[in-house]
Amino acid sequence: MGENAAPGLISELKLAVPWGHIAAKAWGSLQGPPVLCLHGWLDNANSFDRLIPLLPQDFYYVAMDFGGHGLSSHYSSGVPYYHQTLVSEIRRVVAALKWNRFSILGHSFGGIVGGMFSCIFPEMVNKLILLDSPLLLLESNEVENLLTYKRRTIEHMLQVEASQEPSRVYSLKQLLQRLLKSNSHLNEECGELLLQRGTTKVAAGLVLNRDQRLSRPENSIDLVSRELYAHSIRKLQAHVLFIKAVHGYFDVRRENYSDKESLSFMIHTLKSTLKEQFQFVEIPGNHYVHMSEPQHVASIISSFLQHKHMLTAYL
Description:
Layout: E1 9-17, E2 20-28, E3 34-38, E4 60-64, H1 83-97, E5 102-107, H2 109-120, E6 125-131, H3 140-163, H4 172-182, H5 188-198, E7 199-202, E8 205-208, H6 226-235, E9 239-247, H7 249-252, H8 259-274, E10 278-286, H9 289-292, H10 295-306
Parallel strand pairs: 3-4, 3-5, 5-6, 6-9, 9-10
Antiparallel strand pairs: 1-2, 2-4, 7-8
Family: Belongs to the AB hydrolase superfamily.
Pfam family, one: Abhydrolase_1
GO molecular function, one term: hydrolase activity
């Protein structure tokens, strides 16, 4: 596994899909209750390298790279990265792993995709842990932008396909500066960890692994109405833990985003629908607290995973 291997890592996985493979890494006990870990937008499975070793090792954790991210294959030419396709990746991965019922730990965008999967396939998900995951509501101000997002997605894909430019080569320092500039929540150490899996060494330096067709998340993620969100939550069978970072997504992420109101709606809907099956915890830290200060979230997640009444599916 090399000198950069994460503590407790037991294997690197390559799971076949029609366009190539989904890469993943596994920790813990192969016989234990399975937990699928889903990274944030333009991140990769290394997002969980510092958190998973602090969690109970009698579970089996698999952190996957979404298509076009990390070490996973890019989608075939002409195929866009849409929300539904990303949700279907989870179904493909768990079929390859032969999991019938499992838990999901999703950070940010990974929580959005994992949450949607949990509503579409409710009988498969035992527990859902959302790590500072936003709710992209179709608010009135976003209705104005909806067609623009759809147009931008198509135009961006055509532009990337037409350019046929070779992958640009960077130094580690250049990539790190670029990454930290575009993401103020990442520190240098965490940035380097993501770049370890997000780049490939070539003679002149490093090239990014990610598919250049991936652009802004709103171009790939479906915005949902309040009505559809409430309906989807009613379908959930999972116990849900939502962890909000004090200085996370909801506090600084998007201008013109009615984040506080959306967060209130999200929590109220989850609490009123799921009742005792829902837990909300606010912790100190920023959007990448699970990487920079994993001890802040590890004990909360560990307690949630180990809670006895939640393990009935495995008894």
